[in-house]
């Protein structure tokens, strides 16, 4: 009896979940297909032939803004944010394991950085740079603006990881005479490595796709999301979709690589313990 | 709560043996064999010295914490606290087309708060926020509930969860654009409806309308609900549900009286994300409404592009105040630090 009602509930929820997944991926697959539109095709279905025309078009400089250069900038910025995110979040996570004077204030400051609207931070950093007479650029003001968004994620992840991390392992290492550095390098680091990869992945992808915080802080040269945003208003050919497809596939690749590394690390850990 | 190292010093005498045992089984094996031997060799006779050293380290221990927290504090100090303070200061300044002039005027505030446009824009933004919040809460809870209670194996749970997560790590703008071929005048939905004979001509309000804005906002932000709710649902002790069943509760009663109250913290955290993101959104409103709808942040962005920074700053202060009030209201439901 209960079994039957449960399975009914299951089917309804499974259908709901399937619809949700379709809702998430349906539109994305639409632009994936339409980016292979023939040279005479438009922004909507049906496909007017199949070609790589719009992908070629994407890499010609005059057709759209300078796609290659903005991609390189976004990629470099993503890597910078990723490294800074991992290092700073790890250090802060280690600090938060102990209650020190001001730790609660710093914690809430970090959460606040997540909650304060992006455009306000963007405007604030823009005005600070202007008043200090500094030139905003994607690698200075843009970099800092991105960190105010990625660091809270990193710090909260590390906070959660260390909340569940038993100090017994370190105590044991210390009792066996390991120096603090050895304890960290050979005991703590291998155990939290998968989480660190996660923090890095967040840092990279959030920065690579960040738009509102870059708006006032990127200076003269656009990052990729700014470039795409500009295109939404003035490009009316499927080259827009080709660009969307390329960046999305790039993001997917990064995510898959990060997941693969996490899986390998987990498996290796399971084997040794 | 964790026990602090210093205070547990006397305990360590007794625990030491247990820890040594643990170490042999876990982390210690990760070390190369030579180093294991070296470590054992160095521990046994040096036990006292080792302890003395840790006592010597106790004073700079606090200093190490501060050092570790410094990079975070510096970055947030320069790129978060300083800009916010600057915005508050600049919101009182005078300006013209040529530049900003330090002053103490309330003009920027009276202009903003005295205009009907501002109030209408706030109402519009609130409308988007409430609709998006309600929809993401229902959808997010449904998805998280399905994943947490109806998927039996952890592997399958993780795979399905990742399926939900991956699109959220791709560009928001690309995901907005992707609605154009679906909702447009000649888009998939309209052509399907016409082919099926449901409507005689294309529906105009599917794209570039408030409907499209809310749809895209839900599309972009649901994960921020799914993740925290899924997290709290996974931590619910399953025996509570069994106990409720044994006491004769129906499925609905279990959901309403056991699961929902326990999922509140997750729902609160998700709500904070969705509310703050939607309140400050301008790109979705601009792209999906085709420039026909307004939001507070879009108003700010327009002022910024006209270099009216003090006016934008006054708007920013008001918006910040409203958003923080909303967050404070949600935080009454939950203590985040406890939930991580």
TrEMBL record, chain A:
Keywords: Cell membrane, Membrane, Transmembrane, Transmembrane helix, Transport
Pfam families: BPD_transp_1 (PF00528)
Domain ABC transmembrane type-1: residue ranges: 71-258
Major subcellular site: membrane
Location(s), subcellular: Cell membrane
Keyword Mitochondrion part of the UniProt annotation: no
Bilayer topology annotation: Multi-pass membrane protein
InterPro entries, per database record: Bact_Polyamine_Transport, MetI-like, MetI-like_sf
Domain of life: Bacteria
UniProt keyword RNA-binding present: no
Regions crossing the membrane: 12-36, 75-94, 106-129, 149-166, 187-208, 239-265
Family of this protein: Belongs to the binding-protein-dependent transport system permease family. CysTW subfamily.
Name of protein: Spermidine/putrescine transport system permease protein
Organism (species): Sinorhizobium kostiense
């Amino acid at each position: 009896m209960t079994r039957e009602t449960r399975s009914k509930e299951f089917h309804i929820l499974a259908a709901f979940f399937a619809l949700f997944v379709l809702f998430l991926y349906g539109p994305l697959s639409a632009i994936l297909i339409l980016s292979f539109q023939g040279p005479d095709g438009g922004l909507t279905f049906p496909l007017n032939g199949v070609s790589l025309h719009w992908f070629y078009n994407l890499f010609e400089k005059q057709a759209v803004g300078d796609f290659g250069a903005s991609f390189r900038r976004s990629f470099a910025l993503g890597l910078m944010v990723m490294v800074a995110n991992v290092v700073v979040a790890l250090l802060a996570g280690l600090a938060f394991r102990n209650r020190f004077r001001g730790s609660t204030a710093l914690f809430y400051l970090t959460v606040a950085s997540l909650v304060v609207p992006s455009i306000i931070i963007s405007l604030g950093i823009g005005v600070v740079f202007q008043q200090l007479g500094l030139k905003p650029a994607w690698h200075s003001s843009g970099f800092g603006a991105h960190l105010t968004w990625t660091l809270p994620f990193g710090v909260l992840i590390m906070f959660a990881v260390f909340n569940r991390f038993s100090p017994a392992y370190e105590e044991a290492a210390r009792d066996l005479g390991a120096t603090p550095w050895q304890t960290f390098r050979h005991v703590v680091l291998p155990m939290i490595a998968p989480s660190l990869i996660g923090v890095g992945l967040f840092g990279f992808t959030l920065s690579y796709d960040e738009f509102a915080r870059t708006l006032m802080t990127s200076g003269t040269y656009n990052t990729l999301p700014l470039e795409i945003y500009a295109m939404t208003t003035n490009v009316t050919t499927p080259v827009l979709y080709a660009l969307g497809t390329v960046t999305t596939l790039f993001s997917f690749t990064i995510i898959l690589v990060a997941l693969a590394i996490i899986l390998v690390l987990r498996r290796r850990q399971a084997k040794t313990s | 709560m964790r026990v602090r190292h210093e205070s547990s010093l006397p305990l360590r005498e007794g625990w030491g043996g247990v820890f040594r045992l643990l170490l042999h089984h876990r982390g210690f094996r990760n070390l190369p064999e030579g180093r294991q031997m070296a470590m054992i060799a160095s521990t046994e006779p040096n036990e006292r010295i080792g302890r003395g050293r840790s006592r010597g380290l106790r004073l700079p221990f606090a200093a190490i914490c501060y050092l570790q927290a410094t990079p975070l504090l510096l970055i947030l100090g320069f790129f978060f606290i300083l800009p916010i303070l600057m915005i508050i200061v600049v919101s009182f300044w005078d300006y013209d087309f040529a530049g900003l002039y330090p002053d103490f005027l309330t003009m920027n505030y009276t202009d903003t708060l005295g205009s009907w446009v501002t109030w209408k824009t706030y109402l519009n933004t609130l409308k988007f926020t409430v609709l998006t919040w309600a929809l993401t809460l229902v959808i997010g809870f449904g998805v998280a509930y399905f994943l947490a209670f109806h998927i039996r194996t952890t592997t399958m749970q993780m795979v399905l969860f990742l399926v939900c997560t991956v699109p959220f790590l791709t560009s928001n703008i690309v995901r907005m654009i992707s609605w154009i071929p679906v909702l447009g005048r000649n888009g998939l939905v309209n052509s399907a409806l016409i082919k099926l004979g449901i409507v005689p001509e294309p529906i105009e309000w599917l794209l570039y309308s408030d409907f499209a804005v809310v749809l895209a906002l839900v599309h972009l932000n649901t994960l921020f609900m799914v993740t925290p709710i899924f997290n709290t649902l996974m931590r619910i002790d399953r025996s509570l549900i069994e106990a409720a069943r044994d006491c004769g509760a129906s499925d609905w009663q279990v959901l309403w009286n056991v699961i929902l109250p326990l999922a509140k913290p997750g729902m609160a955290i998700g709500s904070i994300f969705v509310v703050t993101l939607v309140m400050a959104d301008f790109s979705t409103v601009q792209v999906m409404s085709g420039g026909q709808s307004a939001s507070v942040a879009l108003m700010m962005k327009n002022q910024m592009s006209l270099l009216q920074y003090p006016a934008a700053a006054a708007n920013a202060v008001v918006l910040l105040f409203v958003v923080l009030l909303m967050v404070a209201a949600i935080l009454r439901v939950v203590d985040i630090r406890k939930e991580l």
